[in-house]
Amino acid sequence: MRAKKQETSRRPGRRALIIGAAAVVVGGGIALERDRVSRLWWRMPGAQKPRVEGAVDFAGARWINASSSNYRRADRPYDYGIDRVVIHVTQGSYASAVKVFQDPGHGAAAHYIVRKDGHITQMIRELDVAFHAGNREYNERSIGIEHEGFVDDASSFTDAMYAASARLTARICARYEIPVDRKHIIGHVEVPGTDHTDPGPHWDWDRYIRMVREADTRRT
């Protein structure tokens, strides 16, 4: 109330005019900034964003938590935009992949593992940054999906695996408005600076991209 009385009793000074003009310019952004702060309050020392234990981002997936040493807590896509899906191959069994992702000394893990029978396990929430790509920028902007098997064994990639993985990738693309194409759905081998070769020559990219497009809920 005091501010209004002052405004009517005297002309505002130059400083007040500048501040007032700035408020007009950014007025619409004040609410946005307040919303941003409310989302990121958990970044303050000692604060943590609430998590629901065992929650998954893909319906039907089984939750098994990776070691916290193999990913970084975040608030994606608010702090890091997500515009890539990276396809991996475990170079081993499903059980061995789960084991190493739970090992704090391993230093890496993906968000999901798809078994040969199509079963999907989530080990890191999509809002968190998984250490899966070997490139910090790509880790921050992507979702990593591992597939049980070996790059030199074509039999690793079963019909059930392709179908389940395609549904998963389609859902991720729809959630973050990622185009379904080879620029945005890539192999680990295509990540800059990597020394990995997965998913290898036996991964049928044409088939996979077609299946992801068919499963894309944005098409219906």
Automatic annotation (TrEMBL):
EC number in record: 3.5.1.28
Keyword Cell wall biogenesis/degradation assigned: yes
Record keywords: Cell wall biogenesis/degradation, Hydrolase
Catalysed reactions, semicolon-separated: Hydrolyzes the link between N-acetylmuramoyl residues and L-amino acid residues in certain cell-wall glycopeptides
CDD domains in the cross-refs: PGRP
InterPro entries in UniProt: Amidase/PGRP_sf (IPR036505), Amidase_domain (IPR002502), NAMLAA_amidase_2 (IPR051206)
Highest taxon of source: Bacteria
SMART domains membership: Ami_2 (SM00644)
Annotated ranges, domain N-acetylmuramoyl-L-alanine amidase: 71-200
Name by which UniProt lists this protein: N-acetylmuramoyl-L-alanine amidase
